[in-house]
Amino acid sequence: MTPDSSPLLILASSSKYRKELLSRLGLPFVTASPDIDETPFPHEKPHETALRLACLKALAIGRQYPDAIVIGSDQVAECAGEPIGKPGSFERAFEQLKKMRGKEVRFHTALCVRNGRDSRPDDTLQKKTVETAVTFRNLPDAELEAYLKTEEPYDCAGSAKNEALGIVLLEKIESDDPTALTGLPLIALTTMLRQCGLSFFPQVFR
Q1: Which residues act catalytically here (predicted)?
Q2: What does pTM read for this prediction?
Q3: pLDDT at position 135, please?
C-alpha cells in the first residue's frame, strides 16, 4: 500500500476520551461535533442504537466535508437488558453504580468510517460493533460515593472510568479490543483506516 496525498481525517466527536485515543495513532486529524438526535428508537436494542448513531455521526460530518475520511463512534452500555447512558450528575451516577454492582454490564462500542475518496462513500461505509463485558465488584455504598466524589465520571456511560480510578470498581473486563471500553476501538479502526489507504508508517514508503 503506497500512500498518496493524505486526505483530511476527521473525528466526528467532541469526546476528549476519543480524541486522546485517536491521537495515539500519530495521524493528523481534526474534530467536529455532529448535530444529530441521539434518542434511541422505540424497541431498539442497545447495540443497534450504538451502530446507528455511529453511522449518523460519520454521515453528518461527511456531508460537511465530502472528501474527508470521517470517523464516527458511539457507545451504549447495557445492564440486564436495559440501556445505561451518561449519568450527568452525582445522583444518577450513584443509582447506576448501585444497579450494576455485582453484575455483568455489556458495553457496545460502535465504529463507522466514511471514506470520501470512494466513488459512493455513503454506500460503502465500514462499520463494526465491539462488545466489552465488564463485571462490577459488589462494593458498599460508601465506596461508590467516595469514588464518584473523587473522579466525577458524569460524562461516561456506566459512571466509571476504567482508564483511571474507576478500575477499582471492576472485577473483570473481557473484550477483543482493549480500547473499546474507553470509547474508540483502535484495533478495528486501524483496520478500517488501512482500507482507506492510510499508512501509520509513511517513512516505509519513502
Answers
A1: 74 (proton acceptor)
A2: 0.91
A3: 97
CA distance 178 to 37: 28
User: Contact at 8 Å (CB) between 30 and 8?
Assistant: yes
Q: What is the pLDDT of residue 1?
A: 37
Mean pLDDT for each 10-residue chunk of the chain (206 residues)?
69 95 96 93 93 97 96 94 91 96 96 95 95 97 97 92 93 95 96 94 66
Return the domain boundaries, the chain: 9-205
Q: Which of 35, 74, 141, 177 is catalytic?
A: 74
Reply yes or no on whether 155 is catalytic: no
